[in-house]
Design a protein that fits this description.
Blueprint: H1 2-8, H2 11-20, E1 25-26, H3 27-32, H4 38-50, E2 54-59, E3 62-67, H5 69-83, H6 87-114
Antiparallel strand pairs: 1-3, 2-3
Helix pairs in contact: 1-4
Protein name: Metalloregulator ArsR/SmtB family transcription factor
Pfam family, one: HTH_5
Region (Disordered): 95-115
Length: 115
């Protein structure tokens, strides 16, 4: 999780993620959208790939990048569940309510059957 949040801490990397979210792009096309050197963009892409947020595929002389949506979604979901304490107690309360209702139903059924 730490690697992902480090990767997301950079506005440049967040922009790169936005660019490759809906279409894959080669490194040159990505670099052309920034006022930075290609080696700098390459470092950002490597960090995003190391964090598991993008995947790359070499085709001929070009490397294409695409977002790995499941990584970002599952990390953010896990983070929210970790920091948002209301979710856990509500789930436990809901489970307890279901258990209590089941016990009451069994008591009613056994009272009905025994009568």
């Amino acid at each position: 999780m730490q690697l992902i949040f480090e990767a997301l801490s950079s506005p440049i990397r967040r922009k790169i993620l936005a660019y490759v979210a809906h279409q894959e792009m080669n490194a040159g096309d990505i670099a052309a959208r920034f006022d930075m050197s290609k080696p700098s963009i390459s470092q950002h892409l490597q960090l995003l790939e190391h964090a598991g947020l993008v995947a790359s595929e070499k085709r001929g002389k070009y490397v294409y990048y695409r977002q790995v949506p499941d990584t970002l979604a599952s990390t953010l979901t896990g983070f929210v569940q970790e920091i948002c304490p209301i979710g856990g107690p509500l789930r436990r309360e809901s489970a307890q309510n279901a258990k209590d209702a089941s016990v009451k139903e069994m008591q009613v059924e056994s009272g009905t059957k025994g009568a």
